[in-house]
Amino acid sequence: MGLIPPEVAALVGVWTQAETACDPVEAGAVRRFAQAIMDDDPAYAADAGADVHSRYGGPIAPPLFPNHMLRRPYGTPDRLHERAGADPDFDGVVPATESLPPLAAFAHLPVLNGGSEFEFYRYARHGESVAVRQRYASIEEKQTSKGSLIVVVIEAEIRTAADELLLRSRRTLLRRVP
Asked: For position 7, what pLDDT does the model report?
């Protein structure tokens, strides 16, 4: 044990500043997302009747839509292309936000997806702006039959501009120590 340096352990529990998505919830983006997940619920359509929208106060987005709203603003550098050109070993993984400090002590270790959990509080409505804040909920070393594993749990909260909680997520990342 002892693979987690004190400067990494000190990051656990510290929330980042909220980062606002570059675009509000927009009908066209909601339509494309709903089509991609093959969910044609009329509540997502901007032109559905008032009877459909009365339950939610207007047209809404699918539950996971806010989780995918953070993307690079138009005209900003594409980090995927920057990293791929500079690092021949780049694995193609680029976080949606860079608000969390990187775990430099583990940058050389491959990352595996350990799963995600979501808690939903309410749907995002068309026209709403959303913001996300994140933190490392835990960073632990585990012993497995194949050696040490660094387990990183990232918690995120996605809220509206009015500070209403839409959803909370927990992502688990696994880094195997060679």
From this structure: 93
Write out the H or E segment, with its range, that includes residue 136: strand 130-144
The three-point CA angle 117-123-127 to 5° equals: 130
Strands ordered across the beta sheet of 130-144: 19-20, 130-144, 147-160, 165-176, 111-120
Q: Which residues of the chain are under the pLDDT cut of 50?
A: none
Average pLDDT in the chain: 88
Neighbouring-strand partners of residue 171: 116, 154
Using CA atoms, how far apart are residues 20 and 6, in angstroms rounded to an integer?
30
Full-model pTM? 0.84
- Strand, helix or coil at 175? strand
Q: Residue 173: helix, strand or coil by DSSP?
A: strand
Q: How far apart are CA 96 and CA 54, in angstroms?
A: 33
